[in-house]
Design goal:
By secondary structure, this protein is mainly alpha-helical. The protein has one domain (about 5-194). Helix content is about 75%, strand content about 5%. α1 (about 5-25) packs across α7 and α3 runs antiparallel to α7. The radius of gyration is 21 Å and the shape is globular.
């Protein structure tokens, strides 16, 4: 199989996995309460998980980090495009937006508590992402020209590729065979349509 086809299959697989995770309904918590009509008899009442409960499980860490890096790439690309003659207020505004995304990733999704709750193989990815975000943040905080901006954007693109590729490889490895087959069929169908 050619490298291009394999790359498209992986890319389509990543999209498919994202959609599955995004559209998957949350499992309701079951809480026992006393039955209002028959005291002493427990009644099981399903309750929705709060957003905090979902985040506490650590499940949002790497997908969110991937999202923050994508957002930064967009902001830095816009900043570069908006500064043909050097940095200006519009481009620096986008750099600041990127710094906000990095801060959110570092302080929320890549906090030590969240990383500790991840499986060991995901912890390595998260720690490498945290290191990468810090390096890029330091570069952006000292930015003086368009070349610095472009270098930071290249580093952010490399970081996103690393996080996205490694996270999706882990997800694909854990995917049931029937889902893998469905994913491969969808990718082949899209390739045939192009």
């Amino acid at each position: 199989m050619g490298r291009e086809i394999l790359a498209v299959i992986i890319q389509e697989g990543a999209r498919f996995c994202s959609e599955l995770l995004r559209l998957r309904p949350p499992k309701p918590k079951r809480v026992e309460q006393e039955h209002p009509i028959a005291p002493g008899k427990p009644q099981v009442v399903p309750q929705e998980e709060s957003g905090e409960d979902k985040i506490e499980k650590g499940t949002a860490c790497l997908p969110c980090v991937n999202g923050h890096s994508h957002a930064c790439i967009g902001f830095l690309s816009e900043a570069s495009r908006m500064s043909p003659d050097g940095l200006n207020p519009d481009s620096l505004f986008r750099v600041d937006k990127c710094l906000g995304e990095i801060a959110a990733a570092e302080r929320i999704d890549l906090s030590e508590e969240k990383i500790a709750k991840l499986p060991p193989e995901e912890q390595l990815i998260a720690r490498n992402a945290l290191k990468g975000f810090r390096e890029i943040r330091h570069e952006l905080e000292g930015i003086t020209n368009k070349e610095d901006l472009q270098k930071a954007n290249v580093k952010m693109i490399e970081l996103q590729k690393y996080v996205g590729k490694e996270w999706f490889k882990l997800r694909l490895a854990k995917m049931p065979e029937e889902e893998k087959t469905k994913l491969a069929n969808m990718a082949m169908k899209r390739l045939e349509e192009e």
